[in-house]
Fold this sequence. Notes:
By secondary structure, the protein is α+β, with helices and mostly antiparallel strands. The strands form 3 sheets. Strands 1-4-5-8 form a 4-stranded mixed β-sheet. The protein has a 4-stranded antiparallel β-sheet with strand order 2-3-7-6, covered by helices on one side. A two-stranded antiparallel ribbon has the order 9-10. Helix 3 packs parallel to helix 6, helix 6 (238-274) runs antiparallel to helix 7 (286-314) and helix 6 (238-274) runs parallel beside helix 8. The model has no long low-confidence stretch (mean pLDDT 95). It has 10 helices and 10 strands. 51% of the residues lie in helices and 18% in strands.
Amino acid sequence: MNFELDEEYQDLSDTVRKFADEVIAPVSARYDRAHEFPYDIVAQMGELGLFGLPFPEEYGGMGGDYFALCLALEQIARVDQSVAITLEAGVSLGAMPIHRFGTEEQKQQWLPDLATGRALAGFGLTEPDAGSDAGGTRTTARREDGQWVIDGAKEFITNSGTDITRLVNVTAVTGTTQLPDGRPGKEISTIIVPTDTPGFHAEKAYDKVGWNASDTHPLSLQDVRVPEENLLGEEGRGYANFLSVLDEGRIAIAALATGAAQGCVEESVRYARERQSFGRPIGANQAVSFKIARMQVRAATARLAYYDAASRMLAGRPFKTQAATAKLVAGEAAMDNARDATQVFGGYGFINESRVARHYRDSKILEVGEGTTEVQLMLIARELGL
């Protein structure tokens, strides 16, 4: 097994790293401080083809694969997690469901703009009582005169309220079904809802602990009417389809978290070499150097975990457990490294404009979003037969 990147992947990684260092990093603190969405950066990422990495050229994509997207996410997240999650959610949660489950007409209508970054899409799954628990879904959709009529509310929906958001893939209860144990359950389907549809509202953006330059809103849907052909995938398969997309998305989140962990290492190495204390660089102290060495071990382990999951996915092999493992390991590596990096920086690590302070605030959500650490443990335990 060879974990070295081939020339094409390495060139992509190097290109995105240069873009992240030269274009994103210099303005990250400003966007974070202003809680402002970075439209100009998103446009430049679109021009680079980053939003189209895993999509076919016929739909405006770059003809690459999911691992290419992961490499890009890792390099961007080193310097700015808000920008990285904008890309990750735009591709894996917004555009990918249409690519995986959409009709040819839906792909032709939506993917060209999504794959070039001219438009963004979100995935409306989470509700006050629903997320990991699909049975808690309360948003409903009923057929009426050739339309779906949707009523409900969603929470924590990324990329749902920007000026370039064009649609949200909304999960809704469309009927009833029988559960394996014989009890009645909810039939959940996914419906494409353009954001200019009357009755669709992105409410006031959240005031978050981190990811301040990422767009996240609660949504309300009141008598929202869209054509029946906006059904995405088979009726009643909405939640099952989302779970398969989420398995892939966990690899992407793991790549993002690995980048965050690596960014903390790089910042700590730089500071430990420059910062003088008692007449020598603080990196000369074993307590500091060992702390940074352990940070590097975490980042390297996280990288191997998501490489493994991605290689299995691309080979068409089962990867659910590997994706859960990668997401768990990388999320914890990002959080642990952010904490240790803040300690290395001391007081400077507590200043919001420092990159490690942003990583400290940003990284906690990596243990929560797209499946909590506890959900990953549950999936892994099930695979063990427990």
